[in-house]
Amino acid sequence: QKEVEQNSGPLSVPEGAIASLNCTYSDRGSQSFFWYRQYSGKSPELIMFIYSNGDKEDGRFTAQLNKASQYVSLLIRDSQPSDSATYLCAVNMLGFQKLVFGTGTRLLVSP
Amino acid sequence: DVKVTQSSRYLVKRTGEKVFLECVQDMDHENMFWYRQDPGLGLRLIYFSYDVKMKEKGDIPEGYSVSREKKERFSLILESASTNQTSMYLCASSLSGQETQYFGPGTRLLVL
After folding, report:
1. Which among B48, B102, B105 is the nearest to A98, CB-wise?
2. Does B103 touch chain A if contact means CB atoms closer than 8 Å?
């Protein structure tokens, strides 16, 4: 079992719709959770981080964390073609000095 | 704003050459990381460092070494480049292991 799992996609949504990206992790002791966006040929850039159970909103983005079920999700409201990218989930496991990254979900937003 | 810079955006090297990739961060971060990224394989951690002169192997350290003589600088060394080391190399830094990693722009290395 991979430590951090994401569906590779592509996830296709029409412009204006809500995109829902999901990530599951294996270590119950994980403490911090991150979503990165990566455009083709570019480096990952942070969208959001979340530490506590529940929802965290930032503009059109909402991160949702459920530690009991070991998943974290990212919702993108009013999706735009410029949101088309690969979204990476990353998790820090207790006692480790590093993040573990999923392989990413490719999102395609069509006009 | 955190700034992570990498010495080159593109590099072309010959098989057997020694290759140096350099990364510099300007935010006094304790932790620095080197990843490679290949299509379908995601980000794979090569080495990381949590303090000056300290290093730890990541998931794929074979064929690589690192050096961290100063806090702001973390170098990745390919002792004898091989074609299977053709990849995108990404450096990142963070204040601690639990916190956000900030990435440099990446170096696309081609080994012929």
Report:
1. B48
2. yes
